[in-house]
Specification:
heterodimer; A: alpha+beta; three-stranded antiparallel sheet; three-stranded mixed sheet; 14 helices; B: alpha/beta; five-stranded parallel sheet; about 35% helix
């Protein structure tokens, strides 16, 4: 602060509205993990600096799984992220099953899809209600809303509790699931449990409608800003893809997950130590808005209705609308979950024997859509079923470069605002991406000159 | 302690799953918030103050610069609570400790490894005095609520000192050893109601060694069931890497 004041005093240039401005957000709040925003605007209104930084402590997961058994990997990688622990487990299991040539039953498939819906629902509601909503109503956090917006908050909390119970019912726990094993499930929910879950999801519908109305009422607080980019998400001909599919893009042909290295091409820029991801042309976006832009026609009718109410139309180029897209996905997740449960109940739930898997040497890739976007895990196993190489490409890492590009496009237009307003607009932008930095710690990763055998880079 | 104690949350190397469990208290959280004042909780709250009574700290210490920050938190707080396995026992972060710094660092960062200061992961108590530990990976939100309540009442929070097996029996599970599988419930501190075993997995040891753990007997059980040393080592190093338990 002292430095800023000094600059102001020394300034001899013609006065411009507000003079030079500096925004330095050290450890952005209401995101998972540690990120900084730095923006500087000189007296003439020119943006001299505009950076998104990540100073998170590295955790070395990719090295931690080396030598570990295929039976344990998904429990270790689950700990990459407390918020997306279900998604990490499923991407991990897919990669292991792909490497070992294991196929899962239809029942397992449906249960895993349900697990992803549960995680999406709880994570999106956390972001919408606890992290983003305070910005829309001008509060520093969700805590004061307990006094000012109690009814709305209780609706949100109620919906989120159902989402957490949903996770627990399918996965055994809300965080770091215990029921998944390579090739299947160690324990499955019973038919009465599923029927009860179905009932509580039905009862959540009006709650979600209320949250949709709440967001519709504060839509004017969503900053108007647009920057077209490439949108990347899993696609499937039959559904709004979350668990599997090809890697789709708004600018490139669909590709199988095995070619993920071509999708998440990484490069170094001379002015930054950050390793960025390059899509078909430049940076790209993953996550709820990317999925919506690529797959909106596959949404449930209720979700389409919610999108109409929230004025969200594909393609939407406003990153602030990610939060709104998350809301639309919540509605879809409840709808699709109910129909998946119906499918399970119709065909009958049964205990399937724990699969006996004989380890073989092999390589495999897994790709699932987690709340923040497409997540890839890739492993190579030796013939004892122990990991030789591991690679995880996390959605937030794929978004970092896009966040930076958005900031570069947005900041010049903010020059006339006060420092506090610039800080708010930039913080809201980054928050809209719902970055999960605690897992994606390797933004400032400059490795990349190493020739890689199967895995050319490893970042968790 | 003051009528409405000020509380703060901090995190080091970890997945933030424990703070998520606090958020997951849902309606119960509103009740707790009536009795405390949150002054710092970066994950959900904008604003920060160094004036707090209770510091909840998640994550392991993995870098020299983290030590200074933790010591500052310790100096500010009347009570320091370690939240979750990474903070209480080092947790999964300690898996890398068995690889050697050069190996894990270069595996991830290649020739630029020296740019990223890091050392072996350690629990908070290896750096500062910890007053209260809330165990688990992640923590059990019910246990969190109970321990916070006990602290607010000025009591020393109670923790089970017996192993998970006690709760596992109560839950009616078939012993994993009888199913031919390894399990650390025999030496791990209870308090989780054997949640992992009940859900089809085995005990991974995330709550740390029970004070009464009989390691000799555990070794005998593992040997009797024919588990090779690598198998035992894998499981012991999953969460318990910092304990140096002779198994």
């Amino acid at each position: 602060m002292a430095k800023t004041q000094k600059v102001k005093q020394e300034s001899k240039a013609a006065p411009v509205p507000g003079g030079p401005k500096r925004v330095n957000v050290h450890h952005l709040t209401r995101v998972e993990g540690h990120g900084n925003i730095v923006a500087e605007i000189d007296e003439s209104g020119k943006v001299t600096s505009c950076r998104w930084e990540v100073p998170e402590a590295p955790r070395f997961f990719e090295a931690m799984v080396l030598g570990k058994s295929f039976e344990d990997i998904h429990h270790i990688t689950s700990r990459i992220c407390g918020i997306c622990s279900i998604g990490h487990q499923l991407a991990s299991l897919q990669a292991t099953e792909d490497a070992l040539g294991v196929q899962v039953s239809e029942q397992t498939l449906i249960l895993r899809k349900l697990a992803l819906h549960a995680e999406n629902l709880q994570s999106h509601l956390l972001h919408i209600g606890y992290l983003a909503l305070p910005d829309f109503v001008g509060a520093p956090s969700v805590i004061p809303l307990a006094a000012t917006h109690r009814k709305e908050l209780l609706t949100l909390i109620g919906a989120r509790r159902v989402a957490n119970d949903f996770s627990a019912q399918i996965c055994g726990r809300t965080t770091h699931p215990q029921r998944f094993v390579p090739g299947g499930m160690a324990k499955v929910p019973t038919a009465p449990e599923l029927a009860k879950l179905r009932q509580s999801l039905e009862e959540t519908r009006p709650k979600l409608d209320a949250v949709v109305d709440l967001l519709a009422a504060v839509l004017d607080k969503v900053p108007a800003f647009a920057r077209p980019t490439e949108y990347v998400a899993l696609i499937s001909p039959t559904e709004y893809a979350l668990y599997w599919g090809q890697v789709g893009s708004s600018k490139a042909q669909p590709r199988p997950a095995q070619l993920y290295l071509n999708v998440t091409k990484e490069y170094l820029i001379p002015t930054s130590t950050a390793k960025w991801c390059r899509g078909a042309e430049d940076t790209y976006m993953v996550g709820a808005l990317a999925r919506f832009n690529v797959n909106s026609q596959m949404l449930s009718p209720r979700a389409k209705e919610a999108a109409r109410k929230l004025k969200l139309k594909a393609p939407c180029h406003n990153p602030y609308m990610i939060t709104i897209a998350q809301m639309v996905e919540c509605v879809h997740s409840v709808d699709d979950s109910i129909s998946l449960i119906d499918k399970l109940l119709t065909r009958g739930v049964r205990d399937e024997p724990r699969p006996q898997i004989k380890p073989v040497a092999g390589k495999g890739v897994g790709a699932v859509e987690v709340p923040r976007g497409i997540l890839f895990h890739a492993y190579e196993y030796d013939d004892r079923g122990r990991v030789v190489h591991a690679d995880c490409v996390i959605p937030t890492n794929q978004n970092h470069a896009n966040i930076q590009r958005d900031m570069e496009a947005l900041t010049p237009g903010l020059a006339k605002l006060s420092e506090a307003d610039i800080e708010l607009k930039l913080s809201m932008l980054v928050r809209a991406y719902d970055p999960c930095i605690s897992c994606s710690t390797h933004l400032i990763d400059v490795a990349g000159e190493r020739p890689g055998p199967f895995v050319t880079f490893v970042r968790v | 302690m003051a009528a409405k104690p000020k509380i703060a949350f901090f995190d080091f190397a970890g997945c933030e799953g424990d703070q998520l469990q606090v958020a997951n208290l849902e309606e119960k959280l509103l009740d707790i918030l009536e009795h405390v004042e949150v002054v710092s909780f970066r994950e959900v709250h904008t604003g920060h103050s160094d004036n707090y009574d209770i510091a909840f700290v998640e994550g392991s210490i993995t870098r020299p610069q983290d030590e200074a920050r933790l010591k500052e938190i310790r100096a500010n707080a009347k009570v320091l609570v370690a939240l979750g396995a990474c903070a209480t026992i080092g947790g999964v972060n300690c898996i890398k400790n068995f690889l050697g710094r050069d190996v894990y660092s270069e595996n991830v960062y290649g020739t630029r490894a020296r740019w990223y200061p890091t050392y072996e992961a350690r629990p908070l108590k290896a750096v500062v005095k910890v007053d209260v530990e809330i165990h688990g990976c992640p923590i059990d939100r019910g246990e969190f609520a109970r321990i916070v309540k006990e602290m607010l009442l000025g009591r020393v929070p109670w923790l089970p000192d017996y192993p998970v097996c006690v709760e596992c029996k109560k839950a009616g599970n078939v012993c994993r050893y009888h199913l031919g599988r390894m399990c650390l419930g025999i030496i791990t501190r209870a308090g989780c109601n054997a949640c992992c075993v009940t859900e089809g997995a085995q005990c991974w040891g995330c709550r740390g060694l029970a004070p009464s753990a009989n390691l000799d007997a555990a070794r005998e059980v593992m040997d009797q069931h024919g588990f090779d040393r690598k198998h035992v080592q894998d499981l012991m190093r999953f969460f318990l890497g910092d304990t140096s338990a002779p198994l």
